[in-house]
Design goal:
The structure is a single chain. α1 crosses α2. By secondary structure, this protein is of the alpha/beta class. β8, α10 and β9 form a beta-alpha-beta unit. Helices cover 51% and strands 19% of the residues. The model has no long low-confidence stretch (mean pLDDT 93). The N and C termini lie far apart (66 Å). Bound molecules: ligand C2E and calcium ion (CA) (3 copies).
Length: 277
């Protein structure tokens, strides 16, 4: 027993060692990813339940490295948050997503919106408001066509500052959505103090919506609360027509998920727009 215990321990440390080595290698590679042009964005369609219309896209980061291959954002974003690289990467995301939206607007699809994810680290940056407003001005798209997705934890960190920052972003015309809504620990009383436009219902509640009565109750409560507070709702991770139908029945305003489309490369997204609109 002692022997196997020790083996287990050495397996464990070998795993930990591998984990640290990979992280170090990834971190060094990530430092050069922007200049080497390895980052890209994919765009996932978002639909309104009014007329079942394509209304815009969420920009999602992708990183392709020659040795590591495709690295998941779930792996490299936390890494980039720990070492601060997320600020430069996030700025690249904002500029690139707005450029793409401007291109679609110039092609005549001026109704389209772009949702952009913001890390809590970016949200802490003093110059965020200035950077975002400059980037929007430079791109030429109306601020009202841009939505920032922020998590509850980003808002909960320094609530008073977050309230002021969100109010300023809103005053510039931007839309603010709470991402992964329902998974954080923030107090619901915050909802009325933040100048929000939308709650994004986390996909963990959508997944078993048809079979799990508790998930259904939670989604129903979120949608009713949002509606009473004058906020829109979007459900993420919608994969089936049955999920869409139930969400629509519950009064959800917008949807996103594999049922409509997986995230698309820019060219594919352009083709998708031509077919959908
Ligand atoms: P998220 O913002 O909650 O994005 C939704 C994730 O669900 C995306 O994963 C998307 O590809 C995936 N997804 C979309 N539809 C479906 C579906 O129908 N079923 C299932 N099972 N999954 C679906 P992805 O692209 O791997 O991104 C993971 C996370 O990485 C994002 O979660 C977000 O937190 C973060 N992320 C991605 N891009 C950015 C970015 O530009 N900036 C920041 N700060 N974070 C980002
Ligand atoms: Ca998101
Ligand atoms: Ca989400
Ligand atoms: Ca998520």
């Amino acid at each position: 027993a002692k022997e196997s215990g020790r083996n287990r321990y050495s397996f464990f440390t070998a795993d930990m060692q591998q984990f640290h080595t990979r992280n170090l290698l990834l971190e060094n590679a990530l430092r050069r990813a922007i200049e080497r042009d390895q980052l890209s964005l994919v765009y996932q369609p978002q639909y309104s339940m009014v007329n079942n219309q394509l209304i815009g896209f969420e920009a999602l980061l992708r990183w392709y490295h020659d040795d590591f291959g495709q690295v998941s954002p779930a792996e490299f974003i936390p890494l980039a948050e720990r070492n601060g690289l997320i600020v430069a990467i996030g700025e690249w995301v904002i500029v690139t997503a707005l450029q793409q939206l401007a291109e679609w607007h110039r092609a005549g699809y001026r109704q389209l919106n772009m949702a952009i994810n913001l890390s809590s680290i970016q949200f802490r940056q003093e110059n965020l408001l200035q950077f975002v407003t400059n980037a929007i001005e430079f791109s030429g798209v109306p601020a009202a066509k841009v939505e920032l997705e922020i998590t509850e934890s980003a808002m909960a960190e320094q609530p008073e500052r977050a309230i002021a920052l969100i109010a300023e972003l809103k005053a510039k015309g931007l839309n603010i959505a709470i991402d992964d809504f329902g998974t954080g620990y923030s107090s619901l009383s915050y909802l009325k103090r933040f100048a929000l436009t939308k709650l994004k219902i986390d996909q963990s509640f959508v997944r078993d919506l048809l079979t799990d009565s508790q998930d259904k109750a939670i989604v129903n409560a979120i949608i009713n609360m949002a509606s009473n507070l004058g906020l829109k709702t979007i459900a993420e991770g919608v994969e089936t027509a049955a999920q869409r139908d139930l969400l629509k029945h519950l009064g959800c305003d917008e949807m996103q998920g594999y049922y409509y489309s997986k995230p698309l490369l820019a060219d594919q997204a352009s083709q998708f727009i031509q077919q959908a609109l």
